[in-house]
Structure formats: C-alpha cells, structure tokens
C-alpha cells in the first residue's frame, strides 16, 4: 500500500455537477489527461488522483478531498507545491484549503526545529512575555536603523526583526545594515547586559541568501527572516538543512 | 528626480472611503508605519508610496495607482515581488492588477531573450505552424516516456515538453528521463532527419536546477521549462543570467 497525501479543495459548483467536477480535478492534479488514453497499470492504480470525499459546506460550495500518490511530490517541497496547486490554481472556482501529509513526507520536510521554547531560552525569557518589533521604515541609512534598534533593545524588545521591505537596497545595503545593527546591540549588551537579538531579512537568490546567513553568523546573529514563497520553498528548505543552529522566522508577503 | 514604479491595485471599497483606503495602501506597501513617526526627509519625500490616481471601475470597485521608489526593489526580482504584493496580499479586498516599471528596472531584469523567432529558427519552422505537446502522464518510466516522445516527434511535434508534474520522482528520475528522451529523439533524427526538441522541466532548489541544466546541455538539450513562482523569481533570474544560450519556457502552477 503506497502512502498518499490528501488535498482538500473548496469548489464552487452546482450540486448536480460536483461529482464530475471533483473527478476532473483529481485527474487534472495528477495525470492531466483522459484516463482512456492511459494503458499503464501503475499509473491508473496509483498515480491518478482519487476523490476520497465530497462535503457540502454552503449552497454551491463543496469541500472536495482528493488523494495523490506521495511519490508524485518526490522529496522536494517545491514539487509538493506544484502538485497541490497545479493547474487548479488557474481556476477561480477552486481553492486549496488544507493538506494532510503522510508521515514519511512530514519526516522528510521536518517541522519547526527550534520552536518557541528555544527562542525564549536564547533571550532569557522562559516565562515572561516574549517581545518583538519590526525595524522600519526602509529608506533610513544603516546608522539610523542601528540607533532605532538600540532604542528598541533598551525598551525591552527581545527580537528586533527587519521590516520585510528591507532588502539589498542602495540606501541600506544588507551587509552595512547587518554590521551596524549587530554592533549597536553588542555594545549595548556590554554596557547594560541587555541582550536583544537582531533578525535580518534575507533576500535574493539562494547563493545570495547563503552569503547573507554566513555574514550574519560572523557577527553572532543566529536568527534570520525569510519569505519562503518568494525564495522558493525548495531553496528555503535547503537553507534550513544547511544551517541547523540558525532559527528561521517566516514572512508571508505573497 | 528618482524613477518610480507604478502598481495598480483593484480595491473593493465604499466610494466615500476609497481615498483614505488608497493612502493606507500606499503607506502599507512602502514604509508600513504612521507617517507622523517618520522624521527623515528622504523617506518622507521618496520612499513613502504615493497615490497617483483612483478610477472607479464598477460600483464599489476602484483601480488605485500607487507609485513606489524604484530603489525599494533594488535590482532583485524577488524584492520587486515583495514590494508589489507585500502586506496587501493578506487583504481579500485588494488585488494587484498591473505593474508599470521604469526603464532601468526593465533593462536590469531583461525580457524574453530568444523570442518566438529563435524558437522557430531552432526547429526549422520559420513560417509554418509551430507545434508543441506535453509529455505525460507522470508515473510512466523513462523508457515509456521516451517512446511517447518519439511518437510525438514522428507525428511532427517540434517542442516536446515535460508535463509540469514531471520532476525528480522515483518512478522517473530527472537524469534517467532526460537521457532516455534525448537519446530517442537523437536516434530518430539520425534515421529520419526529423529534429524535435525535448524540453525537460526543472525542479528542486537552485543548485539542483543548475545541475539539471548542465546535464541537459551535455545531451544537446537547449530548451528547459521552469515554474518561476515555485523556483523563486530571483533564482529563475539567476539561472537565465548563467545560461545565455538556453531558452526558458515558464509554467504558472501557483
């Protein structure tokens, strides 16, 4: 018995047509061709998507549960996204609402690695409120952002994260910003013992993000932010695997 | 005068509230904070988004044109996506409808590099209908897909592209599939002179895609398919810059 992943789609459809629509989605999200043209037994029995259940949520709105072979996702988070969204992402009447993954796929991708407990431990806040603030506005030079970060740290903020708009920009290049903010927080810690963490936002392609993480580690930064849907989830997964001590905070932004 | 990029959002809103809503979007998509808390002149005059125009499209539906400083995108396509979608992507009443980029940003990113003319030239189809077919279903082993590709080529198909579901999967690994299909088409060309092009689909992280392109070049393949929104547009741009002779065909899938 091959493990299967379950995708739940919300489908707007007239009630008499939903069964046929659900079967069409199952085919579209797996083999994308008429079943009558498929002679291969493995493909017909395992790869073709299956309608596992249809539930009416509201008038003309149905939850359709479709199972797909876990093998179709390989071991690649990007290919999983490809299988789940696929061509139905072009259809306005279909929305991906939920996903249930088989255990081995969850084990392959992993989940939150450090967790809230470790984030609390790193800043010495095991029980009290854990605080975080974005560093903004973009357009300020590194020195201006560093002064602001120092104010935040003095005011009791634990994690000071780049606003997601901060990237590799002429008015505040990543490296200059990283070094200025890290130095300001390091100096404050030496003066007052107040140890806040800077969370720089990664941007660019995989190589650029790798060099940004390396630079962050060099100045003692162990938490970074990334927008996985912009970086590409396969690249996000690669970064996580390559940097086991770094905590990654995700931003939606798409 | 700094160049600015224009983002056109469709906003569902009551008419009396649209001006204030438009200003809120302009602030949210740029500095994301109250203007009263911004003292820096450069940020206030250049970085804060500006409402350039509001047009009523239908009852309660407005096109809002907002300009953003081109510097906010840096020279990174991923950061451009970040600026354009940003936090409004979380709001159901706002949709990004169009974008107008300043010339230097277009020059930086580039456009279609080879174009239809070159795709026609490569297969000797300067004027006749240019043909293409996806290779499917996934689940077939490489030899099965190679036989199908040969049938397509004999039937007159010019570009035989992987179905977007084909990736790095146990039943048909990328390298085995690439080699089997490329060999079948090469043999056919030697027998009959019929020269069809195979277009394998890239998947995985940037490193994996790089190695897939290198393998494709090794067997004479000069056209590949990629899903830029899954790969991440910055990585897509990097691949294109690194492989000037390769034609990239994009797939939506998200």
CATH second-level architecture of the largest domain in chain A: Alpha-Beta Barrel
Largest interface summary: A-B, 61 and 61 residues
Structural class of chain A: alpha/beta
> How much β-strand is present in the residues of chain A?
15-25%
CATH class of the largest domain in chain A: Alpha Beta
Question: In summary, what is this structure?
Answer:
Chain A has 2 domains: 4-109, 2-Layer Sandwich (Alpha-Beta Plaits), CATH 3.30.70.150; 115-250, Ribulose bisphosphate carboxylase, large subunit, C-terminal domain (TIM Barrel). Helices cover 40% and strands 21% of the residues of chain A. Chain A has 10 helices and 9 strands.
Question: Which helices and strands, and how do they pair?
Answer:
Two copies of one chain form a homodimer.
Chain A: E1 4-12, H1 18-28, H2 41-47, E2 50-58, E3 61-69, H3 77-85, E4 94-100, H4 103-109, H5 115-122, E5 132-135, H6 142-154, E6 159-162, H7 174-192, E7 197-199, H8 206-218, E8 223-226, H9 228-231, H10 233-242, E9 247-250
Parallel strand pairs in A: 5-6, 6-7, 8-9
Antiparallel strand pairs in A: 1-3, 1-4, 2-3
Write structural notes for this entry.
Two copies of one chain form a homodimer. With 254 residues, chain A is an alpha/beta fold. Chain A folds into two domains: 4-109, Alpha-Beta Plaits (2-Layer Sandwich), CATH 3.30.70; 115-250, Ribulose bisphosphate carboxylase, large subunit, C-terminal domain (TIM Barrel, Alpha-Beta Barrel), CATH 3.20.20.110. Helix content of chain A is 40%, strand content 21%. Chain A contains ten helices and nine strands. Chain A has helices at 18-28, 41-47, 77-85, 103-109, 115-122, 142-154, 174-192, 206-218, 228-231, 233-242, and strands at residues 4-12, 50-58, 61-69, 94-100, 132-135, 159-162, 197-199, 223-226, 247-250. A four-stranded antiparallel beta sheet of chain A has the order 2-3-1-4, covered by helices on one side. In chain A, strands 5-6-7 form a three-stranded parallel beta sheet, covered by helices on one side. In chain A, strands 8-9 form a two-stranded parallel sheet. In chain A, strand 6 (159-162), helix 7 (174-192) and strand 7 form a beta-alpha-beta unit. The longest helix of chain A has 19 residues, at 174-192. Chain A is elongated, with a radius of gyration of 23 Å. The first copy, chain A, starts with a strand and ends with a strand. The mean pLDDT of chain A is 96. Chains A and B meet through helix 2, helix 3, helix 8, helix 9 and helix 10 of A and helix 2, helix 3, helix 8, helix 9 and helix 10 of B.
């Amino acid at each position: 018995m091959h493990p299967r992943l379950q995708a739940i789609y919300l489908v707007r459809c007239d009630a008499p047509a939903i069964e046929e629509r659900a079967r069409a989605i199952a085919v579209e999200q797996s083999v994308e061709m008429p079943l009558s043209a498929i002679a291969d037994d493995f493909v017909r029995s395992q790869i073709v998507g299956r309608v596992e259940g249809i539930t009416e949520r509201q008038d003309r709105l149905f939850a359709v549960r479709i199972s797909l072979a876990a093998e179709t996702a390989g071991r690649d988070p990007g290919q999983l996204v490809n299988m789940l969204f696929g061509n139905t992402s072009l259809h306005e009447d279909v929305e991906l609402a939920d996903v249930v993954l088989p255990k081995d796929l969850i084990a392959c991708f992993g989940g939150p690695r450090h967790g809230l407990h470790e984030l609390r431990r790193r800043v010495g806040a095991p029980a009290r409120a854990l605080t975080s603030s974005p560093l903004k506005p973009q357009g300020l030079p590194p020195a201006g952002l560093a002064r602001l970060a120092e104010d935040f740290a003095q005011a009791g903020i634990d994690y000071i994260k780049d606003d997601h708009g901060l990237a590799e920009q002429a008015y505040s290049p990543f490296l200059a910003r990283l070094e200025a903010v890290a130095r300001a927080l390091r100096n404050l810690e030496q003066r007052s013992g107040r140890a806040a963490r800077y969370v720089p936002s990664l941007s660019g392609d995989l190589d650029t993000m790798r060099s940004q993480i390396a630079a962050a580690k060099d100045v003692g930064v162990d938490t970074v932010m990334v927008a996985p849907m912009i970086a590409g989830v396969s690249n996000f997964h690669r970064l996580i695997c390559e940097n086991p001590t770094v905590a990654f905070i995700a931003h939606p932004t798409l």
